[in-house]
From TrEMBL:
<keyword id="KW-0169">Cobalamin biosynthesis</keyword>
<keyword id="KW-0460">Magnesium</keyword>
<feature type="transmembrane region" description="Helical">
    <location>
        <begin position="48"/>
        <end position="68"/>
    </location>
</feature>
<feature type="transmembrane region" description="Helical">
    <location>
        <begin position="123"/>
        <end position="143"/>
    </location>
</feature>
<keyword id="KW-1003">Cell membrane</keyword>
<keyword id="KW-0472">Membrane</keyword>
<keyword id="KW-0812">Transmembrane</keyword>
<keyword id="KW-1133">Transmembrane helix</keyword>
<feature type="transmembrane region" description="Helical">
    <location>
        <begin position="189"/>
        <end position="206"/>
    </location>
</feature>
<comment type="similarity">
    <text>Belongs to the CobS family.</text>
</comment>
<comment type="function">
    <text>Joins adenosylcobinamide-GDP and alpha-ribazole to generate adenosylcobalamin (Ado-cobalamin). Also synthesizes adenosylcobalamin 5'-phosphate from adenosylcobinamide-GDP and alpha-ribazole 5'-phosphate.</text>
</comment>
<comment type="pathway">
    <text>Cofactor biosynthesis; adenosylcobalamin biosynthesis; adenosylcobalamin from cob(II)yrinate a,c-diamide: step 7/7.</text>
</comment>
<keyword id="KW-0808">Transferase</keyword>
<dbReference type="GO" id="GO:0051073">
    <property type="term" value="F:adenosylcobinamide-GDP ribazoletransferase activity"/>
</dbReference>
<protein>
    <recommendedName>
        <fullName>Adenosylcobinamide-GDP ribazoletransferase</fullName>
        <ecNumber>2.7.8.26</ecNumber>
    </recommendedName>
</protein>
<feature type="transmembrane region" description="Helical">
    <location>
        <begin position="149"/>
        <end position="169"/>
    </location>
</feature>
<dbReference type="Pfam" id="PF02654">
    <property type="entry name" value="CobS"/>
</dbReference>
Length: 268
């Protein structure tokens, strides 16, 4: 590898990217970092580290679930606290994106009106339904995974894979709101996107109890579904679209993990 190629890689991946990713995607009490402003390098270049954030959050939430289970909590009760932990650690930002997309995409007939609804802080019927279904589905799936003794790996696969999917949608669609968080964050670029996806795929492959290609396919289909709906409804992506991508992909991956516990892996 040439010296110039090494310089490019050093410029693309920095330790500060991990701190930036955690600061953006979590509400963890992190120390304040003083980073110099780099006009030529948007914050989205740290997106390659988004899957790493998912791994850490999954470990914390999974630890809560295992601890409660060993203390005698039933799987449904432990699952509820796993879900609460996940929502608190992320600040419910992905849930907010899912609700806003549900309201906007199906609450108006034009892209401009959809974007206006998505920006409104008031939640509508579609948003409430989407949130309730998302929380119920994840609570049920987590409860089943606790019963099957496969909680931690399933959470890691879902959290890591869904955040890798966010990066892909973030890079593959243009931003459509000039004053939105996604536009201020910028585009991650092909290299950061490739690394994020690679981390997600490698982790799925490393999962000891799951079939890699089925889970990877489920994650891809879920992310592609949200991407295509967003492209058709508003012509691109916003921060809300990325949040919805994370939620839908996470649910799809949890469903895949739970199905495998009931014999899906026996299907060729």
């Amino acid at each position: 590898m040439a010296i110039s190629d090494i310089s490019v890689l050093k410029g693309a991946f920095r330790a500060r990217d991990i701190a930036v990713a955690f600061a953006l995607l979590t509400r963890l009490p992190l120390p304040h970092f003083h980073f110099p402003t780099e006009a030529h390098r948007p914050p989205a270049r740290s997106a390659w580290a988004y899957p790493l954030v998912g791994i850490v959050l999954a470990f914390i939430a999974g630890g809560v679930g295992l601890a409660l289970t060993r203390m005698g909590a039933t799987p449904p009760l432990a699952a509820a606290f796993v879900l609460i932990t996940t929502v608190m650690l992320s600040g419910a930002m992905h849930e907010d994106g899912l609700a806003d997309c549900a309201d906007g995409f199906w609450g108006a007939w034009t892209a401009d009106k959809r974007l206006h609804i998505m920006k409104d802080s008031v939640i509508g019927t579609y948003g409430v339904v989407a949130l309730v279904l998302s929380l119920l589905l994840r609570w049920y799936l987590i409860s089943e995974l606790i019963t099957d003794g496969a909680l931690v790996w399933a959470l890691i696969v879902a959290a890591c894979g869904s955040r890798a999917a966010m990066v892909w949608v973030m890079d593959s669609l243009p931003t459509v709101r000039r004053d939105g968080l996604s536009n201020r964050t910028g585009r991650p670029g092909a290299l950061a996107t490739a690394v994020a996806v690679l981390i997600g795929v490698l982790l799925i492959v490393a999962a000891p109890v799951y079939s890699a290609w089925r889970l990877a396919l489920l994650g891809l289909v879920a992310a592609l579904l949200v991407r295509q709906i967003a492209k058709r409804k508003i012509g691109g992506q916003t921060g809300d679209v990325l949040g919805a991508t994370q939620q839908v992909t996470e649910i799809a991956l949890l469903i895949g993990c739970q199905m495998m516990a009931y014999g899906w892996q026996a299907i060729p």
